[in-house]
Structure formats: structure tokens, C-alpha cells
Specification:
6 helices; about 20% helix; alpha+beta; about 325 residues; outer membrane lipoprotein receptor (LolB), chain A
């Protein structure tokens, strides 16, 4: 039974990152194969809808800071500190995911987008709604993960003591949500070399654009560690660890750049995942509705992993292809 795992497009060109952008895992053997398709999914039982055009908050706003001029060097630690300050006191945030071309234009015709929301707390709580045909939806409530398994047309709840295959399944679909957590983005920014690109408009919100560069090894390590802190240990899956190690060995010294856009109070309003080399497009996430209350609902009638596999096998779908999903 093949399960499609997903890593961020961030390192689709170099291998693993954040558990799995199209890494195929079989029941007895695991092979990590990179793909150019982007990660997308979340709760089909409830929708956060499209993102709004303003970044508002019901919590007290942090102090506004003046934006550095374009071309100014700003340490990644300073930028990460601004993001963390912007997060403080916020109950939750919504997001919208898409793809941008090399010029920064949003591509919606070739890649299905996704949307969702986070509660800014631990254990991980949120939902990821896939608006593409893949229907890879995920709901996580206090660390308990549910995923929509398209081939069996049912929701699957992760067990307390998952088998190796179920752990791969769970990790993949928890990762696609956890990797977008603003707290994880802050971890990735920290330690990098930043530069202000000046002011930008993000769906009507005035923001400062920062480009932050670091090595592939540092970005991967920081993202993986940040995700583990907030409920998704992607390296607990042996095939992910193998892919991670080989990528670090092969490409760890290469430089990649990620982009973040912060409003005057330090709130993250847009994040473009790292890119480098010959990459011509990247995943882009827009954050809105800071301060939103996020209380996802567990899908009704969620089945066990074995029940879902049994149904898929009985319907002639023992080997789900791209788009199979469960957590």
C-alpha cells in the first residue's frame, strides 16, 4: 500500500523537508522521491474559507515599529523576534496557500490552493482544507490527527500506538499543517542573513518584506526542530530520517532564501517558502484574521487506519496514488 507523504516545496528540489512533499512510502520498503507538486490540504468537515483582505486581531496589538529602508541588512534573529512578538497574545490565525511564479505572481490555474487555520497553542490544533481535487484534508485537535482518505472516501483517526505505516501516514498529514505554523516560520528565520526589500502591499495590508538566506542544512534543521516542538516529529519516520541525512550530505551547504512579510506590529502576513538554484515557483502562504478563535470539530464517524485500508483494498484501491490522505 503506497502512501503519498508531503514535504514542503521548500526543498522539493533537494529532498525531504518537513516530512514529505511527495515522498512515496511503501509498506515494507521506503523510497523517497522528490516531486514538483505543492503541498495542499485540510479539514473537509469544516472550512475556514478564503482569507480576508485584512490582518486584524482581537488581542492587544504589539508596538508598531518603523520599517528599515530597502537594502538594509537585518539579522534573522531580529526578524524572528518581531514575528514572535506579533504572535504573543493571539488566539489563532487563518491562512491561504498557493503557488507563485518567479516574478511573485500568484498561480491559481495550475495548482490547487488550500486554506485553514491554527490555534496558537500546544498541542497542535488546526485544520488544513484542500481545495484541489486531491482532497487531502487534515484536522488536528490537541495533537490528535484526522485525515481524509480519498480512496476509501472516509476520515481516518490516528491511533495511539500506530504501526510504522500508520506513523508515516499520520506524520505526512500532520506535517502539511504544522510546517505552516507561524512559530515554525520564526524558527526558520532565526540565524539567517536578512535584508529588507522595502514596503509591500499584502492583500491591502501594509507590510515590510524581508528576504532571509541560510544554508539548506540550517533551514531544514530549524524547520524540523520547530515542527517537533509543536507536535510533528517528522524524523520519527525512518525513511524521512534517511532522506534528511542524504539531503544534508548532498546539498547542505547550498544557500536558499525565504521571504517573510510583517505588518507594522510584527504579525506575519505572508511567507514564501525557501527557494534556490533553478527553482521557478514556490509555495506562498498568506496569513489573516490574527486573533481569531479556532475550535476545529472532529470529523464524524472517523474510522481506524486498518478499517480504511480494508475498505480501500476491498474496492480495488489497495495502493492509493497521489492524493491519498489520512493522519
Amino acid at each position: 500500500m503506497k502512501i503519498l507523504l508531503r514535504t514542503t516545496v521548500t526543498f522539493a528540489a533537494v529532498g525531504l523537508l518537513a516530512a514529505c512533499n511527495n515522498t512515496t512510502v511503501t509498506q515494507n520498503t521506503s523510497t523517497a522521491t522528490s516531486s514538483s507538486s505543492s503541498s495542499s490540504a485540510s479539514s473537509g468537515s469544516s472550512s475556514s474559507g478564503g482569507s480576508t483582505s485584512s490582518s486584524t486581531s482581537s488581542a492587544p496589538s504589539s508596538t508598531s515599529t518603523s520599517a528599515p529602508s530597502a537594502g538594509s541588512k537585518v539579522s534573522g534573529d531580529t526578524i524572528a523576534g518581531q514575528i514572535r512578538t506579533g504572535i504573543q497574545g493571539q488566539a489563532g490565525v487563518k491562512f491561504k496557500e498557493g503557488r507563485r511564479d518567479a516574478s511573485g505572481n500568484l498561480r491559481t490555474s495550475t495548482t490547487g490552493t488550500a486554506n485553514g487555520e491554527f490555534a496558537i497553542k500546544d498541542p497542535l490544533t488546526g485544520k488544513y482544507n484542500d481545495t484541489s481535487s486531491r482532497m487531502e484534508n487534515t484536522v488536528v485537535i490537541d495533537g490528535v490527527a484526522y485525515g481524509y482518505y480519498r480512496n476509501a472516501k472516509m476520515w481516518v483517526k490516528a491511533g495511539d500506538n500506530p504501526s510504522a505505516l500508520e506513523l508515516s501516514f499520520k506524520t505526512a498529514y500532520t506535517a502539511q499543517l504544522c510546517k505552516l505554523d507561524p512559530r515554525v516560520v520564526a524558527e526558520m528565520v532565526a540565524g539567517g542573513q536578512g535584508e529588507s526589500k522595502g514596503e509591500a502591499d499584502v492583500d491591502g495590508v501594509k507590510a515590510t518584506h524581508y528576504a532571509v538566506t541560510n544554508t539548506v542544512a540550517q533551514l531544514m534543521q530549524k524547520q524540523v526542530n520547530g515542527m517537533k516542538q509543536h507536535g510533528c516529529d517528522v524524523l520519527a519516520v525512518p525513511s524521512n530520517q534517511t532522506s534528511y541525512d542524504s539531503t544534508i550530505k548532498r546539498d547542505g551547504t547550498k544557500s536558499y532564501t525565504l521571504d517573510v512579510y510583517l505588518d507594522p506590529h510584527g504579525k506575519l502576513v505572508r511567507y514564501d517558502e525557501p527557494t534556490g538554484g533553478t527553482s521557478t515557483s514556490r509555495t506562498s502562504i498568506t496569513y489573516t484574521d490574527w486573533g481569531a478563535t479556532v475550535n476545529p470539530t472532529a470529523p464524524a464517524d472517523a474510522k481506524t487506519f486498518d478499517e480504511a485500508r480494508s475498505k480501500a483494498t476491498g474496492s480495488g484501491s489497495a495502493s492509493p496514488t497521489s492524493g491519498s490522505s489520512a493522519a
